[in-house]
Every structure is written in C-alpha cells, then in structure tokens.
Amino acid sequence: MIESRREDQAVVNQRHPRVIYISYDGAAEPLGQSQVVSYLEKLAAHCAIHLISFEKPGDDREAVGARLLEAGVDWHPVDYHRKPAVLSTAFDISRGTRKIREIAAGVEGPLILHARSYVPALITQRARLDERARFLFDIRGFWADERVDAGLWRPGGPLYRLAKHYERRFFAEADAVVTLTEASVPQIREWMGSNDAPVEVIPTCVDLERFRPNSARGRGPRVLWAGTVGPRYDFRAGVALARELGLPFTVLTREEDEARAMLDGAAQVRSVPPAEVPSEFAAGDVGLSTMLPTFSKLASAPTRVGEYLAAGMPVAALAGVGDLDRLLPGRNVGIVLTDSSANSVKAAADRMRELMADPETPARCRHVAEERFSLDDGVARYLELYKGLTD
User: Fold this and answer.
1) 4 falls in which pLDDT band (50, 70, 90)?
2) Superfamily of domain 223-372
C-alpha cells in the first residue's frame, strides 16, 4: 500500500506546482492538525508538497506522520526551541533556512515558498533562493501587533520595531498574500505600497465531514468553550454569558488548571484529544469565541467559529474581531457583545435565547459554514493561487 502511494507521489512530484510549506506551529499540535495538515492532505493530490514544521515535545508525531505519509506530503519536522527568548527563535530560523535550501536543491523548476505567518516568512527570506522561487505570504493575522496586544512585547520596543521592519519587507516583496478576513485587506494594501500582488481572503476553514450537526444525545442545551483560555480571549465575558443564559457550561481546553482557577467550580472542565473534539459539539448548544477586539484582531478569524457553525451551533463573540460583526448577526447565526458589561451580556443572552428557540437555527448555521468555511473550497482557492504563481 505504502509502495503504491509512493509511486503515485512520484507522479505528483513531476507536476507543477511544487511547494515548500513552512509552519512555525507544529503539525502535531491541535491547531496544526486542523489548519495545516488538513489542507495539505488535500493539496498533495495536486501538488508536490514539502512541509517544514517546528514540533514541540509531547505531541504525537507518529500519528501525524502517518497521515502525512499516506497523503504523500514529504514532512521535515524540526524541533521547536522556546528558551532562551529571542535567541531560540533565531536558532530555529537558522535551522529552517538550511532545511529550505536542502529541499530546494533537489527540486527542479518553479517553486512556491508558502510561509505561514511571520517567522516562516523570515525563514524564506533568509534562504535567498533564485528567481524561480515565488513567495506566498500567508499572514494568519497581524503578528507583531498581536505580540503587543497580548502583552508579550512593549509597544514601540526594539522587538516590535524589528518585526515591523521585516513586515514591510514581506509585504513589499510578496508575490501573493493570503489573509483571513475582508476587514484586514485595506490595511494590508496600505502596507504593500506599490506592490500590486494579489491579496486573497481565505478564512480558517473546517473539514465539514468531521464537524457535522450531532444530536445532544438526550441532554439539554449547554454553553461550550473549546480551546485556549489565554490572554487573547476575554474568558470571563464568556463565563458571564453562560451564567446569564442559565445553561450548563463545558470548557474543553488543554489549559485545565487556568480554566478552573477562573471558574470556581462553575463548569465542567476537561481536555479531549483533537480527534474527539467534533463529537463534543452538538446542534442546539452555544459556542463561545470571545476573542479580545484589539487592532491586530482585524485580521483574525477564530478557528472555532467555523467549527461551531458546521456543527449547527450559534456563536457568541465580542464585537471588533475580523468579519464577525457582519457575519454572525448579518446571517442570523450568532450574536456579538459590544463589551463585557452586565447590560451587554444581558442583551446578548436575550438575543441568543431567540436564536435557540428558532428550529431553523442549526440548519442556518450549517449552511453558513458550508458557504464560508468549507475546507474543500479553501483548498481549491489555494490551488488556484499556486497555479497562478507558477504558470
């Protein structure tokens, strides 16, 4: 079976486009599995894909490696280094640069360097390949500003200024840019200056076969939080909404201790493997995604929103994040809180009760997911972009 798959991949490797995909997120992480591996499994049917990813200890590389091998993706995992700060990232950049050069030396013809966010973009720049290489800058958000908004960097500090210097270069030299939101495009065009390369909006997509409307298996509706409870999110606003709705509250996160510390026993908190997450989502539940609305979040499309909608769940979010202000109330599939005040939470809860009482809400949520967040559509758009860069 594996030999047959390798023979098939040998045929693919003779085709265009040929892609080196660089991700600073690990392929074995939950985010990497949903937003890197799921795409590449499908793209590899049409492209020769090399994946460079930076892997953290403790993640299951063997299972992900088997998926990538079966799909025909040539995986080059590199160990991620966390400490010492800055120097560890510089070391990773150096290793990634060498890996790109090694791979490129064995590839003939046009080549796409698909950089998923800013650190991979710097790696591709440092590799300094010849003119046959095309640079696709897949921003995933305004990374430097996200670091400031999260309190990790000082506004105007040396790290921020250095990152913004490179950001200007990335936008000026990109052969194409991918962003997650329509709301971010005007700002990106401003930063690109005279560079008229295409800017494509491809949101965080969902495997609609995995995330489907499931029954609640005899229980009533609940409020669900899935994912990080870290500083990018207003977790307490989500807690307040769950309490105002008077529904059971479930938190699915790997940060169990942090979540429990903020809840005082007011919710069920547990961690589940990525493969089991879809079975936890049920039509009739309410999905929370209260990402903080900072400047950097103009370019954010929270992954869980598409997954909640695909499962038939209305979504609650904070106003000012990406395209959600228009999408959720505009398509009648969720609500946005203007802020986390008591009055805002009460008004949001009242509106959410109306959505939950509407028997058409689950089908409407699913339809929006199929229309806006389909993984197959996202893959098709990446493939079209690849072909445009190499034709």
Assistant:
1) very low
2) Glycogen Phosphorylase B; (3.40.50.2000)
d(CA 64, CA 273) in angstroms, rounded, equals 13
**Pair type for strands 223-226 and 48-55:** unpaired
Instruction: Quote the CA–CA distance of 183 and 300 in Å, as a whole number.
Output: 9
Q: Which residues of 85-124 are buried (b: 16+ CB within 10 A; e: fewer)?
A: eeeebeebbeebbebbeebbeebeebbbbbbbbbbbbbbb
Closest among 52, 42, 56, 92 to 76, alpha carbons compared: 52
For residue range 275-333, what is the model confidence (pLDDT) as tens digits?
Answer: 889 999 999 899 999 999 999 999 999 999 999 999 999 999 999 999 999 999 999 99
On whether the CB atoms of residues 160 and 149 are closer than 8 A, the answer is no
What CATH code is assigned to 2-205+375-390? 3.40.50.2000
Cα 8 to Cα 105, 216, 264, 279, distances in angstroms: 22, 42, 55, 33
Q: What is the mean pLDDT of residues 47-62?
A: 93
